[in-house]
Specification:
- Belongs to the dus family.
- It comes from Absidia repens.
- Its EC number is 1.3.1.-.
- With about 300 residues, this protein is α/β, with parallel strands linked by helices.
- The protein has a single domain (about 30-275), classed as TIM Barrel (Alpha-Beta Barrel), CATH 3.20.20.
- The protein has 13 helices and ten strands.
- It has helices at about 15-25, 45-55, 65-70, 75-80, 95-110, 125, 140-150, 170-180, 215-225, 240-245, 255-260, 265-270, 285-305; strands at about 1-5, 10, 30-35, 60-65, 85-90, 115-120, 155-160, 190-195, 230-235, 250-255.
- Strands 3-4-5-6-7-8-9-10 form an eight-stranded parallel barrel, surrounded by five helices. Strands 1-2 form a two-stranded antiparallel sheet.
- Helix 5 (about 95-110) crosses helix 7 (about 140-150).
- The protein is globular and about 55 Å long.
- The protein binds flavin mononucleotide.
- Flavin mononucleotide binds near residues 90, 159, 233 and 255.
């Protein structure tokens, strides 16, 4: 049995009732998303995901620094990926003005949503005073959100962890979220990687495995903020666990499972969204379409050079 947060009571765990609940319970355009992953979520990877599952999931881009957005402003589609309603551009930075002017360029180019990285522990990112270290200064994250007001009308969301270093209590996490929710422009969606991050002594890779997952912390937050759409992230590798999570929060973000096996999206399409088998592409069709697109792209480049 599943229990939904938004007044649906207890529902039988059948595909039929689950789909019914999905269609009426939607506060996010898509309930599932593919996580931002540097060096993975490239334009070509996003294109592959689009071929596999179209607009059924949200696809986050790699994290980009606002300077890079300025630098590549004439060809952002090639640099970031095709602007689509379900493509969300992740920015990493800490300067509110720089971030909001990059956001404006992205909006003008046709991108429909932006996400700010408040969860990355990499040493270079820490040196730039952004990523997970921003969790230590929630007022700066609020300043970043506030700086978007008047600059962009598209949603600007936050991806964070449940804590950082010794700041790992529920109280700390709630204070962090409360600071964002009481700023002038609160995030319309919060994505939480359900483990804390350790800034010194653990590599980014180890920071994705060693600090233990604490889904309960995220579920607790969801009950404290019933009006805030929340997605949970971290360690989801089966459609059963995704389905369970969607009974507690609005969305579920999946990273490494899709990185290792992009066709996992089709399992979600089948099991969570009940997409019939005849609408699921065969691996051969996916490869064919992907290669076809690559060939057309190369030909276009060739023509442009002549
Ligand atoms: C190769 C790789 C690169 C990543 N790069 C980013 C990034 O640019 N921005 C970000 O917020 N998280 C990044 N992450 C973290 C993921 O978005 C996600 O939070 C993490 O992998 C946990 O989800 P998972 O267990 O489903 O993989 C990256 C993860 C991987 C594996």
């Amino acid at each position: 049995m599943l229990r939904f947060r938004h007044g649906f009571g207890t529902l039988r765990h059948s595909v039929h009732s689950f789909r019914r609940s999905l269609s009426t319970n939607k506060r996010l355009n898509n309930l599932t998303s593919v996580a931002p992953m540097v060096d993975i979520s490239t334009p070509n990877f996003l294109e592959l995901l689009h071929i596999i599952s179209g607009d059924r999931h949200d696809y986050y881009t790699e994290m980009h620094h606002p300077h890079a957005i300025h630098q590549h402003q004439d060809h952002l589609d090639r640099f970031i990926g095709t602007p689509r309603p379900n493509v969300i551009v992740q920015l990493g930075g800490s300067d509110p003005n720089l971030l909001s002017s990059a956001a404006k360029l992205l909006q003008d180019y046709g991108y429909s949503e932006i996400n700010i990285n408040v969860g990355c522990p990499s040493p270079s990112v820490q040196q730039g005073q952004f990523g997970a270290i921003l969790m230590k200064t929630p007022s700066l994250v609020a300043d970043i959100l506030n700086a978007m007001e008047g600059k962009v009308s598209i949603p600007v969301t936050i991806k964070c962890r449940i804590g950082v270093d010794h700041l790992d209590t529920s109280e700390f996490f709630h204070h962090f979220v409360e600071t964002l929710m009481t700023c002038e422009r609160p995030p319309p969606h919060l994505i939480v990687h359900a483990r804390k991050c350790i800034l010194k002594g653990l590599s980014p890779k180890k920071n994705r495995t060693i600090p233990p997952l604490n889904y309960q912390r995220v579920y607790e937050l969801a009950s404290l903020y019933p009006d805030l759409p929340i997605s949970i992230n971290g360690g989801f590798t089966t459609t059963e666990t995704i389905r369970d999570a969607l009974g507690q929060v609005d969305g579920c973000m999946i990273g490494r499972k899709v990185m290792d096996s992009p066709l996992f999206l089709q399992e979600i399409d089948r099991d969570i969204y009940g997409i019939p088998e005849n609408e699921i592409k065969s691996p051969l069709t996916v490869i064919d379409e992907y290669l076809g697109k690559q060939v057309r792209k190369e030909k276009k480049k060739g023509t442009q050079k002549k």
